[in-house]
Design goal:
It holds the Pfam family ABC2_membrane. Its main location: membrane. It is a multi-pass membrane protein. Belongs to the ABC-2 integral membrane protein family. The chain is mainly α. The chain has one domain. The chain has twelve helices and no strands. It starts with a helix and ends with a helix.
C-alpha cells in the first residue's frame, strides 16, 4: 500500500512539475517581488537602519526568504483550484490511484518550485553583498527550517485551493502572509517599534524564524528561538494539514 502511494505521488508530482517548468514565469514572478523589496530596502532605506556590524542585506535576507515562500504558495492554491475546476480530480477518482497522492503531489511541487525561487533570491543577495561564514550544518539547518515553513504554508494554501469559489479567492489569502514579515524583526529591530506593535512583532511566528535563520547565517548561538520557531512551524503544519484533509474529503465525497 505504501509503495502504491509513493509511486502514485511521484507520477502525479511529475505531472504538476511539468506544468511549472512549462510556465517558468510563475517561479520568476514569485522571486521578482521579494527581490524588488530587497533592492528597495537595501539601496533606499538600508543606510538609515542601524544593524550593527551586520550588513543590511545580510540582516534582512531571512525575512526576504520568508516573503518568497509566502508569494510562492499562492500558486499552489491557484494550481489546485484549476485542477478542481477542470475536472481532473473526478478523473483521478475513477482511476486505481491513491487519493491522497493528488494532494501530496501539489505539496511536493510547492516545495520544489519554492526551492528554485529561494535559490534565485539568494543568488541576487550574493550579488548585492550578502556573505555568510556559516558551515555546512548551519546551511542545512536553514534549508530545513525553510522547508518546514514552506510545508506549513503550503498546507494552508491547500484549504482555499479546495474551498474557494473563484480563482481570486484561491490566491488572495497569501497577501496577509506576505505582509506579516513587515511587522516582525525582519527589516528593523523590534526594539524600535511602539509598545503594542512591538508586542505583536515579538510574539508572532515570523520573528522567531527570522531570528534563528539570521543567527545561523552570522554564526551566533540560536538560543531558545529555535524551539519557538519549530513549535510555530509544526503547530501550523499540523492544524493546516488536518483542515486541508477535512476539506478534501468533503470536496470529493
Amino acid at each position: 500500500m505504501a509503495t502504491h502511494f509513493f509511486g502514485d505521488t511521484v507520477v502525479l508530482t511529475g505531472r504538476t512539475m511539468r506544468h511549472v517548468t512549462r510556465s517558468l514565469d510563475t517561479i520568476i514572478t514569485t522571486a521578482i517581488t521579494p527581490i524588488a523589496i530587497m533592492l528597495l530596502f537595501v539601496y533606499v532605506f538600508g543606510g538609515a537602519i542601524d544593524t550593527g556590524s551586520v550588513s543590511y542585506v545580510s540582516y534582512m535576507l531571512p525575512g526576504i526568504l520568508l516573503i518568497t515562500i509566502a508569494s510562492g504558495i499562492s500558486y499552489t492554491a491557484f494550481r489546485l483550484f484549476n485542477d478542481l475546476r477542470g475536472g481532473i480530480f473526478e478523473r483521478f477518482q475513477s482511476m486505481p490511484i491513491a487519493r491522497s497522492g493528488v494532494l501530496w503531489a501539489h505539496v511536493l511541487t510547492s516545495l520544489l518550485a519554492n526551492a528554485i525561487s529561494l535559490l534565485l533570491v539568494v543568488g541576487v543577495a550574493l550579488l548585492m553583498g550578502f556573505r555568510s561564514g556559516a558551515g555546512v550544518l548551519a546551511w542545512l539547518a536553514v534549508a530545513g527550517i525553510l522547508a518546514l515553513f514552506t510545508l506549513a504554508l503550503t498546507w494552508i494554501a491547500v484549504i482555499p485551493g479546495l474551498t474557494a469559489k473563484t480563482i481570486d479567492g484561491a490566491s488572495a489569502f497569501a497577501y496577509p502572509l506576505i505582509f506579516l514579515p513587515f511587522i516582525s524583526s525582519a527589516f528593523v529591530p523590534t526594539g524600535t517599534m511602539p509598545g503594542p506593535v512591538r508586542a505583536f512583532a515579538d510574539h508572532q511566528p515570523v520573528t522567531s524564524i527570522v531570528n534563528v535563520i539570521r543567527d545561523l547565517f552570522t554564526q551566533r548561538p540560536v538560543g531558545t528561538d529555535i524551539w519557538t520557531a519549530l513549535a510555530w512551524c509544526v503547530g501550523i503544519l499540523v492544524v493546516a494539514y488536518l483542515f486541508a484533509n477535512v476539506s478534501y474529503r468533503r470536496r470529493i465525497s
